[in-house]
What we know:
heterodimer, A: alpha+beta, 6 strands, extended, B: alpha/beta, Rossmann fold, 14 helices
Amino acid sequence: xxxxxxxxxxxxxxxxxxxxxxxxxxxxxxxxxxxxxxxxxxxxxxxxxxxxxxxxxxxxxxxxxxxxxxxxxxxxxxxxxxxxxxxxxxxxxxxxxxxxxxxxxxxxxxxxxxxxxxxxxxxxxxxxxxxxxxxxxxxxxxxxxxxxxxxxxxxxxxxxxxxxxxxxxxxxxxxxxxxxxxxxxxxxxxxxxxxxxxxxxxxxxxxxxxxxxxxxxxxx
Amino acid sequence: xxxxxxxxxxxxxxxxxxxxxxxxxxxxxxxxxxxxxxxxxxxxxxxxxxxxxxxxxxxxxxxxxxxxxxxxxxxxxxxxxxxxxxxxxxxxxxxxxxxxxxxxxxxxxxxxxxxxxxxxxxxxxxxxxxxxxxxxxxxxxxxxxxxxxxxxxxxxxxxxxxxxxxxxxxxxxxxxxxxxxxxxxxxxxxxxxxxxxxxxxxxxxxxxxxxxxxxxxxxxxxxxxxxxxxxxxxxxxxxxxxxxxxxxxxxxxxxxxxxxxxxxxxxxxxxxxxxxxxxxxxxxxxxxxxxxxxxxxxxxxxxxxxxxxxxxxxxxxxxxxxxxxxxxxxxxxxxxxxxxxxxxxxxxxxxxxxxxxxxxxxxxxxxxxxxxxxxxxxxxxxxxxxxxxxxxxxxxxxxxxxxxxxxxxx
Lengths: 220, 410
């Protein structure tokens, strides 16, 4: 995000408006938004099917023509071995996203003069600090990953049979069990992988669409 | 510039495909894997008439490459960083066998600590191996340099393998417009590979890479390799002229940017030279007479071209994207050596180390480089090695160290 200032045209994949994002975050720039994840989930059933959509939006912002976008989508997706009908659908939805984004008149101007950097002269430190090592045991808890999720697992208590399989399968160890054998999910560290939802034999864990607002990560 | 947008890796793969190579022994490593993936796809579909084989390591890969070249096959392979170092002992054998081939290295900083982004300690570790080295700044140059590399490597006056280097991520995974040379023109540029001293046949057996003792034969053969590498300067000149005639693009052993009336010159290599050129433009707009010299050929060392470009300058700053612990910048030393006897050598030769592990080279750091270099030129004495690191980066590092060390209990 280096080099972004109030004149930069910035696109964010989000259901919030540009104004809301500008107010809630420290993002500078002229913000344009569109919920590409939501569109991908709705139209393709996959949150990851956003490549063509992102390309179309970026193309719109820099002034590429619709025809160029259409061709580019076909060429890029052809490499993935997708069926022609899937590629065509990607083109259609991508161009809908293209139309949904207003153009942002781009400014040109001379770059601001930058002062010479304040350089730090490296000083020798003893190897306890000067080596790439981590001595703080279990400090990954400091990194919150709630903002990584598209879906969060939510417990339907009536359906849980206390089998502990979710606890066993969670790859990040964010599920702990109560005395009554019920899972408690640490949402600050759940990454939303859905393995617990997938493994639950009684469908007591369901996937709920994550709400906008969690930060990508922050270290305490 | 027209052409199609493609990554440096894909441009490298196209270089191999246009050169109509016969054999590709392969092993994956970030950030080059896209090269061998593209080649695998084309060999499988028949778009390329080459044999593609996955090996169990870069050491085996390099051995297979040299062995195949010894049978007279045109060979291509690619690696990076740890892979290059794993193959390192074989590089010396391949050059000693005088089996030409092209090895693309996608530069990546070496472990430890392990990382993914580029610097040049990997490729420069091979500078004494007998492989020639060409370092590319753009995706177009990657493709073109591979074609030139085969022509130079397979010339009777050279017969040495060549490394073509491109920066990981900044070039390997970055798309730039690349004009595809016409395959018919490439055939004119690259004659078929017909080495007189190679090619194993049952009817004409010979032994290659035989053992020698006593020093006399060993020295002779090593001298031959050195002379061959030195011949490559002239062969490169001829190849570049032919390339320009057929394809309209000109490559010399070094590239000068706004050098004409430059008082102070910044020396760089590879993709970050693009940032250096922008910094030169910014300084020029403020009236500073600065220029940039980009070294393209590293082996053989283009001593004459360097002397010619740097003689008479007030100050020269060598920006090494590499570090030899306990000495400093590798290219700085080689430049200093070739300038030693030059009557008009620059008054101040300065050493800067930057971009290690792909660390950003900011506009502010380039300004600091030009400022400090100018001061050194006025004083008449070089400085360095200056290890580029900003106060902001230092604060970031302290924060990371505190998290890693669990400051509460230490």
